[in-house]
Amino acid sequence: MSCSYRLVRPTLALLLLLLGATSGCGQKVVFPRLEFKSSEPQTPSIPLSVRLDLPDALKQAQMYYRDSCNVPQAIPLGERLAEQVKADAAQVFEKTFEGTAAKEPADAVLSAVLETSEINLNIPRREIGEYPLKVLIRLRISVSDTEGKSLFNDVIKAEGKWTARTDGTECRVQGIMLPVTEAIEKLSDRVVESLTQAVRIRDAAIRLRTRQELAAGAAAQPRSSAESPTLSFRASLEDENHNQILEGGEKVLIRLEVANSGPGVARGVAAVLSGTAALVKEFTSPTFLGDIQPGEKKQVTISSTLSASLADEQAELVVQITEAGGFGVSTRKRFVAMVQPGVKDAPSESLEVLSVDVDQVPPRPQGFERRTSYAVVIGIGSYRDEGVPRMKFAKRDAEIVGKHLTALAGFPAENVRVLTDDRALLADIESTFEDWLPRKAKSSGIVLVYLVGSGLLNAPNHEMSILAYDTGAPESAPRGYSLTRLQEVLNRIPSRLNLLLADVAFNTVKGTGQAGPAGLLWEAPGLRTKGRNVLIASSPSPGPSLPWEAGQHGLFTYQFLKGIRGQADMNDNGWVDVGELFAYLRAHVASSAAELGKEQIPVILPSLDPDGPIGAFSLTKARRTR
Q1: pLDDT reported for residue 557
Q2: pLDDT under 50 in the chain at which residues?
Q3: Residues 471, 462: contact at Cβ < 8 Å?
Q4: Which of 14, 116, 175, 254 has the maximal Cβ count within 10 Å?
Q5: Global pTM exceeds 0.90
Q6: Which pLDDT value is given to residue 170?
Q7: What is the reported pLDDT for 225?
Q8: Cα 183 to Cα 195: distance, rounded to the nearest angstrom
Q9: How far apart (Å, rounded) are the C-alpha atoms in residues 542 and 506?
Q10: What DSSP string describes 247-267?
């Protein structure tokens, strides 16, 4: 089909927030957590201590397929699958650990065996094309009690589907990792659901708890001094960033070691917490350690990720060890600490925000890092074919945004991939979104995507794509990456939160009509907001993508940079929240456009509650300057 460009240039600036579907977030990160309501259990639901038996054959497993040159290729699967099984078990059972039976007593043993892992892909020859791709994983999960009686034994399977692409010049197949990741995520959901609902496992837990209660009752009978236990304990309180301030969103650990130096068995030993009520309820109390034999020591860690709603106050936490027969430890351990609802900036960490020059990247705040989060920044201002409309400052925008994400948003430098101009070929974009990102994304982290460049709009079906550097000339077929396809990628990766921002000037394909009335652009089926998706557009209708010559950036990107540098920190708490950022963009993009004699007003769909979990999500750590 012959295509040509007609410059309509509606500006696209999206902010898409997508939360992972599972409630088990694995490792916690050091930024304030989102507290979305969920019907799924937020804490382990079955009070059993389970030993995990994960064989080396599982940890070293690989998947195989043939590329477009018919050469066998391998994908490492086992390590990622084993880590997912560990996370799933920790979400279901009160305590899980790996090791031999002699290392630590357990109530049950869970084993996992990979029965099937296959990739169904048929590429007949090396040429440009799209091919259906299906991934199947079958995992056998078995749970048995200490006597070897089977409590659960079933094969759980999951599939992932995608459309793989080949460019005809390389053997490599784009998009292989995406269905693999999707299959693992589906498998995880089904493992958690199956174990949680297993009747035999729940019955075993009830029987065990009943026996423990009976034993505790028997132990309550008077014992002679020759049969009495003598308990002692040590306790420590640790916060994640080790600044000795308990902050909202931070993981806090209480480590206990209880020893029995007496001649008798300590029955029904438990750790009981007291003190400031709001802080105590953040932890599990009491925490049962069970029986402790003479000369034995038991260690336990009580952990919690603190709620962001905690009051700013000095609080105390008191730890006491009890024993069913009354032989608990008479002394208590008392901790006193400051509690803050969110991480605060120390005065020495305050960041100066220059009023004009946003290219001077601020120093990175200490102690703030999103280690499991990843960012992709794409800026394409010039194209291989000069007939494609250019976008001024796009490359510069992307480079500076990437540096600011590392400096202020906590992304490690190695976790930020920046593609600009001739390093943003269609193959580069596809490889980044459909291979690199699915390999890297973690369920505990976030993903941020920032797009700057020219796009293509097919008016009848509202199909939008961002043009790659090697896009075709006006009279040839354009080479763009579909934003609908990008959204499908983000929906499938295991990230906890996805942020998609884009400043894209669209061109319409000749013969497809106009973009439609104001607002219709944002109702495209592929981009329609739903669930926890939020769409922020720099304008509700087609309009020019405005440059800001004074700042040497695109207008929207310039105000975005100023906002995340601290000028959007309206409550002066040292954090720029998503809600604050949108309010700042709406006001300052509009006023700057008015100075140019133009109109550009960012909008958000659906409406955002500034105090809700998305609106209050802290994006960058920076303080406003007066």
Answers
A1: 92
A2: 1-42, 343-356, 474-475, 515-520, 522, 528-531
A3: no
A4: 14
A5: no
A6: 82
A7: 58
A8: 18
A9: 9
A10: ETT-EEEEEEEEEE-SSSPEE
SS3 (DSSP) at 570: coil
Which residue is listed with tokens 């550097």? 469
Report which of 569, 478, 461 is spatially closest to residue 515, judged by C-alpha positions: 461
Please say whether the beta carbons of 576 and 619 come within 8 A.
yes
The first and second tokens of residue 178, run together, are 């995406």
Dist. CA 215–CA 262, nearest whole Å: 19
Say if residues 378 and 453 touch (Cβ distance below 8 Å): yes
Q: Hey, which residues does 140 pair with through a beta bridge? A: 113, 155
> What's the Cα-to-Cα distance from 308 to each of 319, 373, 473, 553, 575, rounded to whole Å?
23, 20, 52, 35, 13
| 11: three-class secondary structure by DSSP | strand
List alpha helices for 267-328, DSSP H: 277-280
DSSP 178-215: HHHHHHHHHHHHHHHHHHHT-HHHHHHHHHHHHHHHHH
CA torsion angle 179 183 186 192 (round to 10): -150
How many whole angstroms from its chain centre is CA 48?
A: 28
Domains of the chain with bracketed CATH: 5-18+359-621 (3.40.50.1460), 43-200 (3.30.160.150), 221-340 (2.60.40.10)
Residue tagged 């977030």 (tokens)? 25
Backbone torsion region of residue 421, taken as left when φ is above 0, otherwise alpha when ψ lies between -120 and 50, otherwise beta: left
Q: CA dist 391 to 121, 299, 465, 468, Å? A: 38, 61, 15, 13
CB count, 10 Å around CB of 115? 11
Nearest to 258, CA basis, from 224, 286, 225: 286
Q: Which residue is listed with tokens 């993508």?
A: 545
Q: Give the DSSP H/E element, type plus range, for residue 364.
A: none
- Angle between helix axes 394-408 and 555-562 (nearest 10 degrees) is 10
DSSP letter for 362, please: P
Widest pairwise Cα distance in the chain: 97
Integer angstrom CA distances of residue 356 from 8, 273, 352, 359, 360: 30, 52, 12, 9, 10
Q: Where are the beta strands (DSSP E) in 428-496?
A: 446-458, 463-467, 480-482
**Burial 128-162, CB ≥16 within 10 A → b, else e:** eeebebebbbebebbbbbeeeeebbeeebebebeb
Q: Tell me what pLDDT residue 19 has.
A: 33
Side-chain half-sphere CA neighbours of 530 within 13 A: 8
Write down the residue that tokens 């720099």 correspond to: 538
d(CA 290, CA 148): 21
